Amino acid sequence: MLKIYFISLFLILNYSIGFSQSIDSFQYDFIQLSDSKKLDFAMRKLNAILISSDSSSSKSVNNDFTIVHFGDSHIQGDNFSGEIRQIVQGYFGSTGNGIIFPYSLAKSYGPKGLSASTTGTWSASNILRYDKNIKGVSGFTIQSFDTAAKIKILFTEKFKVPSSKNLKIWYGSNSDSTDFYLDENFTMSDDEKFENGWGVRSFNSFDNITGFDLSIAQTNKFPSGFSFFGFELISPNKRGVNYYQSGVVGAKFSHLINNSALIISQLQYLMPDIIIFSFGTNEAYEKNIDADLYFNELNSFISKLNEELPNTAFILTTAPDTRSQGKTPPNQIIINDQLIKIAKSQDVSIFDLNKAMGGWGSLNKWYKNKLVAEDKLHFTASGYSLQGKLFSMSFLERYNAKSANRKLDLTNLRNEILLGIKPVLGKITVAPEVVIEPIKEEPIKIKDKKNDLSKIYIVKKGDSIYKIARKHKLNPKKVLLLNKLNEKSIIKVGQKIVLY
């Protein structure tokens, strides 16, 4: 029996050691967020949230941070954005999950744990449809002119939103001829109305909210119609991050732009600290696309947002690698190139999700590791989770770089990513792409190492030729030539690199 125990212990120790070594020796350069002055300002505000949490006297101070995440079906399912929300709120605290829309009422899917039904006559619409129904930040609306129309919302045990006794209804009403009210469990506490015919009405409940009934009331015989944009559960916490996700299946940037009047008005109400845009997948599958027109339209929209929301930072994410119906999207490279170009032209950050995955062609490895759905257009819950971790790591590393104090320990998150990404990328080193202009001067002369003293660098964990060259203020191409390497060569920990 004792012999068996020692054998088991030996196997466990050897497995643990081998496992640790395999992770330690695995090199992966985390893709970073590009520079943005406004994002740096937002990071300083996040830092203030952590600092204020140290002071017991600031418990009553409202110190929240708002993020709004727009996108397509990758966002509507709230797996990618939900992972980011969970990680960021885990570090900084939570003040809410933003606007929630019962997508089933618009014949779509999500969110989990929410049961919704209607009585009376309703019409549904989203930002993809060019109709008279107004659509705001949530991307969806249901509208009714029926005086007997009602909405019933119930939360099940799978509804993961924190408990709340306060509720906001986001609505649209073009005149005072239509009103609405909730069931007897609620009392109205505030009603804010804005231009463009929309408002936000607040309600209180004596108990934690498990659902609500909404009824329409007509004040005269000429109903103006009532639009329901969604609801928001208000957290009792005064400090933390409020994370809104607004995804619509099939959405493109153009759909958001076409509804920008109401969306910008609602964003001015929210005053977000950061807006994340995750579009590009659907554009990539268009048969024909004018790259210049796409750039100009999107660039103009971002300029307008910068003007209307001067204190808001913007982050773009590139489109991931996909193969819907086995087809390679014809414009995938064009779209991502334009997104990168827009980020460079304005004070906007970009996270290259595509490169973080491993670049074009990486989808096959993600699929083999069960990170991609069967349609090869969407990802599994595990795949979206890994993508969310990759973005979060970049986001939080940016925070640490700009924080003079209260830096975050990202060790566990880093290890989780390495465990997830290693089966996909194997033993390759993913380094930032190096664009080296052709040398117009005299060809690089390599000194004879027998006659000249050369400087040797020993490769460390996380190194790449690009990083080593930048650290020593050298031309990466020269370092490659000196060491008889090319841009696809793999370097290992402990390897000797000749610098000059």
How many domains? 3
CATH architecture label of the largest domain? 3-Layer(aba) Sandwich
Our count of helices gives 15
Helicity range of the residues?
A: 25-40%
Major sheet description: 7 strands, antiparallel
Mean pLDDT: 85
Distance between the termini: 61 Å
- What shape does the CA trace take? elongated
Main structural class: alpha/beta
Q: How much β-strand is present in the residues? A: 15-25%
Regions with pLDDT < 50 over 5+ consecutive residues?
1-23, 427-453
Q: What is the CATH homology-level superfamily of the largest domain?
A: SGNH hydrolase
- CATH fold call of the largest domain: Rossmann fold
CATH class of the largest domain: Alpha Beta
How many individual β-strands? 19
Computed CA radius of gyration, to the nearest angstrom? 26 Å
